[in-house]
Write a structure and sequence with these properties.
Blueprint (H helix, E strand, L loop, with lengths): L2 H11 L6 H8 L7 E10 L2 E11 L4 E5 L6 H8 L7 E7 L5 E3 L5 H10 L1 E4 L13 H11 L5 H14 L16 H13 L5 E5 L7 H18 L2 E6 L2 H7 L2 E6 L2 E7 H6 L4 H12 L1
Parallel strand pairs: 3-8, 3-9, 6-7, 7-8
Antiparallel strand pairs: 1-2, 1-4, 4-5, 9-10
Helix pairs in contact: 1-2, 5-6, 5-7, 6-7
Length: 286
C-alpha cells in the first residue's frame, strides 16, 4: 500500500497524534523504515542545535520538518544527510540491497556511493547545488557519469529527457545555469538530483526566495515527480502551505526539539501544541 493511501486511511480512522507513526507503519504492512533516528542531539560548542530527536521515514513518504528560523530544522536535515556527525544518538539508513547503515560510521567510499546513487540534496540556493560554469546538460550528465555511465549519446539523451520533465526547453541544454532564471536553476538542480533515480532526497527550503507564481509552478512539478518516482523526501520548510501540499507527515520543531508530529492535515487542522497553534494562526492572519 502506498504511503499516501495509508495516510488517508489513518486520517479517517483516528485523531490521536501519539499513535500516528505506529499506525502508519502498520498500514504499510510493517515495511522496514528507510531511515530510523534515535536520540539524535547536536551541539555547536555550548549551543544546542537539536536535542533528543526520534523519527522514522518510510519508503515513498514525504516528511516535512517545519519551524521558525533557529528551530533546529536545518541542523537536523544536515545531520540526517551525513554532512556532520551528531553529538549523540544514532541514524540508520536501509539501502536498496536491504543493508542497514549507521550514518555516523560510514566510510568515505560508502558515503560517496550513497550520495551518487541513492541520495539527492536540493539546496535552497540552486547555485549551491549546480556547477555554474558547466552547461545544463553537463550538470545532469555529470551525476550519471559518477554512476558509471560513459556513452555520450545516452548521457545527452537522458539530459534532454530530464530537461523536458522539469519544463526546460531542449534548446537550452548547452546554456550555463548562470543564463537561467532562479526558478529554472532550481528546476535544473532537481533534474540533476533525480536523474540517477535516488531513493531518498533531502530538500532544504526548495521554494524559498522564489516569486509566488514561480513557487506554485515548482510545487506542482515536485508533487508530480514525487508521486511518479515514489520518492522518499525529507523536506525542511518554514512554509506550512508547502508542507501541506507536499508532505504526508510533518514534525514541528522549536528550540531544537520536536514539539508535535503527525499527519500533515491533522497537525495543521487540529494543532495540539501551543507553538504549532501559533504557527497555524499566523498563516490564517496573514
Amino acid at each position: 500500500m502506498m504511503v499516501a493511501q495509508a495516510a488517508k486511511l489513518i486520517s479517517s480512522a483516528t485523531s490521536t497524534p501519539i499513535s500516528m507513526e505506529i499506525m502508519l507503519a502498520d498500514a504499510l504492512d510493517a515495511e522496514p523504515a528507510l531511515m530510523s533516528v534515535r536520540g539524535v542531539t547536536h551541539y555547536y560548542g555550548d549551543r544546542c542545535g537539536c536535542r533528543s530527536i526520534d523519527l522514522d521515514l518510510w519508503p515513498g513518504e514525504v516528511l516535512a520538518i517545519v519551524g521558525e528560523s533557529g528551530s533546529g530544522k536545518s541542523t537536523l536535515l544536515n545531520l540526517l544527510a551525513g554532512r556532520f556527525p551528531p553529538s549523540a544518538g544514532t541514524i540508520h539508513y536501509r539501502d536498496a540491497e536491504g543493508v542497514r547503515h549507521n550514518i555516523n560510521c560510514l566510510s568515505e567510499a560508502v558515503r560517496r556511493r550513497l550520495l551518487r546513487t541513492e541520495w539527492g540534496f536540493v539546496h535552497q540556493n540552486p547555485r549551491d547545488g549546480l556547477r555554474m560554469r558547466v552547461s545544463a546538460g553537463g550538470n545532469i550528465g555529470e551525476r550519471l557519469m559518477a554512476c558509471g555511465n560513459r556513452h555520450y549519446g545516452k548521457l545527452r539523451g537522458s539530459a534532454l529527457d530530464w530537461l523536458s520533465r522539469v519544463e526546460i526547453a531542449a534548446d537550452r541544454i548547452d546554456d550555463r545555469p548562470s543564463a537561467y532564471s532562479g526558478g529554472m536553476q532550481q528546476r535544473l538542480q532537481i533534474a540533476r538530483n533525480l536523474v540517477s533515480s535516488p531513493r531518498l532526497v533531502f530538500m532544504d527550503e526548495p521554494t524559498g526566495g522564489l516569486d509566488v507564481s514561480v513557487q506554485a509552478k515548482l510545487l506542482d512539478l515536485l508533487r508530480q515527480l514525487v508521486r511518479q518516482l515514489n520518492l522518499s523526501v525529507l523536506l525542511v520548510t518554514h512554509d506550512l502551505v508547502v508542507a501541506r501540499l507536499l508532505a504526508h507527515r510533518m514534525i514541528v520543531m522549536r528550540r531544537g526539539e520536536i514539539v508535535e508530529t503527525g499527519l500533515s492535515d491533522q497537525v495543521l487542522d487540529d494543532p495540539q501544541h501551543a507553538y504549532t497553534q501559533l504557527l497555524v494562526s499566523s498563516i490564517l492572519q496573514g
